[in-house]
Design a protein that fits this description.
The complex is a heterotrimer.
Chain A lengths: L1 E9 L6 H9 L5 E4 L9 E4 L3 H12 L8 H15 L10 E6 L6 H4 L10 H11 L7 E3 L5 H15 L4 E8 L3 H9 L20 E2 L1 E9 L8 E9 L12 H10 L8 E5 L6 H13 L6 E3 L2 H4 L6 H14 L2 E2 L15 E2 L4 E2 L4 E8 L3 E8 L3
Helix pairs in contact in A: 1-11, 2-3, 3-5, 6-11, 8-9
Chain B lengths: L2 E9 L4 E4 L2 E3 L3 H6 L2 H8 L12 H14 L11 E7 L4 H9 L11 H4 L6 H10 L5 E5 L5 H11 L5 E10 L2 E10 L8 E2 L2 H11 L1
Chain C lengths: L1 H14 L25 H15 L6 H7 L3 H11 L3
Classes of the chains: A alpha/beta, B alpha+beta, C mainly alpha.
């Protein structure tokens, strides 16, 4: 068993997890509507960080010069440093392993026509992180579409359980770019307006950018830290960009983590909830197949948009802070259910005294993951 | 302890492909008519029209996995097989191809068919779809073929997957390279090679 | 119309990477989706791009495409009536 020692979020809703959580609890969203962002020629709603504020925080926290680093590098380094500074661990220690979860890394360099830039390689960004902290190990890069964040948490946990490392610093990060906005746009996956997860009027997703970090170690009873109990990654074997009609992968991942488990103990399921027609429908089928129809489910995409490689880590952190606060967060954007299966998305913040939550997540390539977390009382 | 069920490979620069002890190359005549990957597809008489929609990484992954599963015995349980792959470039070639469809503001036509391949794990998705593998699919990007790290990561994943199809699938100016092996927890035959750094290093030197 | 149908067949084969097919293998009346050529949702999106790029016709979304991409013949008739290029 693993536990989360500390965490950090760098996003339009703040530069600490606490500030982010408070804003989410108060219903504030980082999503804004732009008439024309990145010159893609149409209205787009997305959640974008303020570059000047990021630069100032980056310089303050790392002491490095903002002009020498890309937006992604600044975001990821700031998040990792703040998560580590909250603890007494020495990041130079070889028993500390770094993990980077990212889908596209510095892809904005392609938009800048820098086709031969070595920073386009994801391991280049990962090396910068490890080098900054003076860590002798290679920083492991997980690039598994939108489920990367949970995959990185699972991979890091396995490395700790195996005894190869004692601590893992897992950072999920991605940035907005013309590349990504154009791409999702041509798939007709974007909503021009703020997204509406699970809603009958949902029109697609909003993109977002953020970095999020968790520091993990082997669980210690009585530490008060959130425990990560079980994780599972399963493929749909159906389509490379559309989810399975039977939610095969999501259902199998949920079945794995909830085996021999009393589901009545679950406070909520934090879903992927991107607000596309297909994703939300698929998740409703998975939840229905698991007979969790009455369980509160929520999605955080209405606050952050879809943050790609950061999503799994960021959303697990918000879910963590909410359960520590005995709260189930409202699904911002949700009003009326629009899925074929009856499920229970939250329309307001709720109180809970239960100890467990499930994180469910899906991504391109037919990938799905589920994770079970526990609050100690 | 884990074991290597079998392995398969493709190396465009050396014009070789094969499975286990069998090695082939593509005759010049075929290379004159088709590119390397399509030539292998035709020589092996594979039949999967979706092949032609894939980018080079997914084509290489498809071919290597088809070679690998060929004539595996009936004990192999597909639904418990995961696909975990590694490379250096992520999906960079396809990323650049996609960028070219949006570069020119006067000629802005982003291609959906290209965009869906701008993630390295799509290769794992294509393999799972074709082979009906419902296990764990994942992707890691590393600067070089780091055998120790690959063995560690796959050994970890075997705790939750009975089989893992794994390996390196990369693309450079010199062409595609793929080395794929099927690893499993339990050995069915005592001829199977244990899944160790030494064994993988031997394979890598043989084919790359 | 015949000329446009042939041109469209070639464009479809090239855009959708239907490498194993020639224009004479495609029946202008056969369904493009479902049975027939068995195209999928990504192919539909590529056809939307093709309509705009080659013929200047802007479709709002995939569902509008559904009615037009029934067969090559239906596509050709729609293009003939609405093209701006």
């Amino acid at each position: 068993m693993i536990e989360i020692l500390s965490d950090n979020i760098i996003s339009p809703l703040g530069f600490t997890s606490e500030e982010n959580y408070l804003n989410v609890k108060q219903g504030k969203s980082g999503i804004r509507t732009y008439d024309n962002i990145f010159d893609v020629g149409r209205q787009v709603s997305c959640s974008r960080m303020d570059g000047d504020l990021l630069d100032a925080e980056f310089q303050k926290v790392t002491g490095l010069c903002p002009t020498e680093y890309t937006r992604l590098e600044k975001s990821a380094l700031t998040s990792a440093k703040k998560a580590i500074d909250a603890l007494g661990i020495d990041p130079k220690n070889p028993r500390v392993g770094f993990y980077l979860s990212t889908t596209k890394g510095n892809v904005e360099l392609l938009d800048q026509n820098l086709f031969d830039d070595p920073r386009l390689y994801l391991w280049n960004t990962a090396d910068k992180i490890a080098q900054f902290f003076g860590n002798p190990n290679k920083c492991t890069v997980v690039s598994n579409a939108c489920i990367s964040g949970i995959c990185a948490i699972i991979a890091a946990s396995r490395a700790i359980e195996s005894g190869r490392i004692d601590y893992a610093v897992v950072t999920g990060a991605d940035v907005l770019s013309r590349f990504v906005v154009s791409g999702f746009g041509c798939l007709k996956a974007l909503s021009a307006d703020p997204c509406k997860p699970f809603d009958k009027d949902r029109k697609g997703l909003n993109l977002g950018e953020a970095s999020a970090t968790v520091v993990l170690r082997r669980a210690v009873d009585g530490s008060g830290n959130l425990k990560f109990l079980r994780g599972s990654i399963r493929n749909d074997a159906n389509h490379i960009s559309g989810p399975s009609r039977t939610a095969e992968g999501a259902f199998n991942a949920l079945t794995d983590i909830l085996q021999d488990f009393d589901k009545s103990q679950i406070a909520f399921v934090s879903t992927h909830g991107t607000a596309t027609a297909f994703n939300d429908e698929m998740e409703s089928i998975a939840i229905d197949r698991m007979e969790l129809n009455d369980k509160p489910v929520n999605a955080f995409k209405g606050y952050y948009g879809h943050t790609l490689g950061a999503a799994g880590v960021l959303e697990a952190i918000i879910a963590k802070h909410s359960i520590m606060d005995n709260t189930v967060i409202r699904t911002l954007g949700f009003e009326n259910l629009g899925t074929s299966k009856q499920i229970n998305p939250t329309s307001e913040n709720l109180a809970t005294d239960k100890q467990y939550f499930v994180k469910l997540i899906s991504g391109f390539g037919g990938s799905n993951a589920a994770a079970l977390f526990k609050k100690e009382v | 302890m884990a074991f290597i069920y079998d392995f398969a490979y493709i190396n465009e620069k050396r014009n070789i492909f094969g499975k286990g002890g069998y090695r082939y190359n593509v005759p010049d005549k075929e290379l004159a008519e088709n590119n390397f990957l399509t030539a292998i597809y035709r020589l092996c008489e594979f039949s999967y029209p979706k092949f032609f929609k894939m980018d080079n990484l997914s084509k290489a992954g498809f071919l290597a996995s088809e070679l690998l599963v060929d004539e595996l015995d009936e004990n192999f349980e597909r639904k418990d097989c995961g696909v975990i792959l590694f490379n250096r470039v992520s999906s960079l070639t396809t990323d650049k191809n996609f960028e070219n469809t949006i570069k020119d503001p006067e000629n802005f036509y982003p291609s959906p068919a290209l965009f869906v391949y701008t993630l390295p794990n799509i290769v794992t998705g294509e393999i799972c779809i074709r082979q009906k593998f419902y296990g764990e699919s994942s992707f890691y990007v590393m600067e070089d073929f780091d055998t120790q790290r690959i063995v560690d990561i796959i050994s970890d994943s075997l705790q939750q997957n009975k089989y893992v199809m794994t390996g390196w699938i990369d693309e450079t100016d010199e062409g595609v390279k793929a080395l794929m092996f099927l690893v499993t927890r339990d050995s069915l035959y005592n001829t199977w090679i244990p899944f160790t750094v030494e064994a993988i290093e031997d394979m890598r030197k043989l084919v790359f | 119309m015949e000329e446009l149908i042939l041109q469209l067949k070639n464009e479809i084969i090239e855009t959708l990477n239907l490498d194993d097919l020639k224009p004479e293998d495609i029946n202008a009346d056969e369904p493009l989706f479902g049975t027939g050529l068995g195209l999928d949702s990504i192919d539909a999106l590529e056809l939307i791009v093709l309509m705009e790029k080659n013929y200047g016709i802007k479709l709002k979304d995939a569902s509008e495409g559904k009615k037009i991409f029934v067969s090559v013949k239906v596509m050709a008739e729609y293009i003939s009536a609405n093209r701006t290029k």
